[in-house]
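Continuing the batch. This is chain 6 of the set; chains 1 through 5 are on the previous pages. Same settings as before, nothing changed between runs. Recording input and output for traceability.
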Amino acid sequence: MRARDCKIVATMGPASDPPERLAMLIQAGVDCFRLNFSHGAKEDHARRMAAIREAEAKAGAHVGVFADLQGPKIRVGAFEGGEIKLRYNEIVTLEASTEPGGPGLIRLPHPEIVQALEEGDILKLDDGKLQITVTEVGRTQLKARVDFGGVLKNQKGLNVPTRRIPISALTEKDREDLVYALDLGVDYIALSFVQHPEDVREARGLIGDRAGIISKIEKPSALQQIDEIVDLSDAVMVARGDLGVELPPELVPIAQRQIIRAARAAGKPVIVATHMLESMVDAPTPTRAEASDVATAVYQGADAVMLSAESAVGRHPQSAVAIMDRIIRAVESDEEYWAGLPRDMTPPQATTADAIALSARHIADTIGCSTIVAFTATGSSAIRVARERLRCGVIGLTPMTETARRLSLVWGVRAKVTEDVANVEDMVEKADAAVRELGVAEAGDRVAIIAGIPFGRAGKTNMIRVLKLE
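Output for chain 6:
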């Protein structure tokens, strides 16, 4: 039982591959692992998935895993000689072609981009290091002025912050990776470069209920429809890498707060990711600014914070997890944190489940419950209670191992697998045994239990009972 509510996600990579290192990461505080399908072969991901499940069993924990699909990462083509130099105020030509470009000529292997662009559109190259603005539009060619110059190398990334590009969030590679990841048994699929609610609907049609969907918000167009995207997703990620390229840097913190609030209002887990402890790829300690960045995400009520290169290829993956754990605990020990969380709460929806969850919070606050026990098949009941941000935390009891693993991303929820409940007496006995085993309550403590009658039917949360431990 971890003594914190915000969860930690770590990206798998060469630095975290050794079995002993993986076990140490879980011990240090990792709740969920990310398999980054932008790098590595399928066999690498299969090996890592098997290693995670083995380490999970040895640790006696329920550890989530999500597959992060590469998505339609737009890149420029190749160049004769491998690179070209862009000079300030120079006019260059953009052409839809797979042939190599050259001085003053950038070839784009994405004809849909050339067709979608209009005069005045801004294009950022190589993670925003270079920038050009479209000055003239033709049928197969565009002219653009260089705003920020430099050396542009083969296949560097291209971002179009001013325009929604008419391409699916799932490439052919993503579709193949999606099938493979589902066969591996991942708990979530993370969709990159979600632009529109239809991207999530398309993915849902392919995934069904085999895994949850995490929508990565890294395009300004997604912010314009964030509520609908959140509603269609099982979780969202504030993916600040590409979002920081597409938006001016001063707007990224505002977008982060907007996404977190939208997710919290909908009762969906939200992950804050990218560059959280970036200096720890090499250094043994983070910068003060990085520690403050992690703390800010926790203060805002994020369900999870994520390590990327720090745990995948960094020199100190275990230390990065341990320090992130310490930062979270420090914030959660601050009374101002708990005073501030209710300010961001939104009214419950007009559903029985939300009414029960709100009642559980009031009961816990009034009589000082040690914890809330939520019996849940799909995880929904535990998630709705977690939305209330109870200080006493939530124990999610479920008969489904898959549900326990999905709850690894949810703020304040500790999941435990138990057998299906037969009746009310059985429910009370299982709740009593679970809280004692997990060490969150003892004789004389009160525990609030929420469940659904008839038992064993999903989506029927309709009762609450207070148990005083003998």
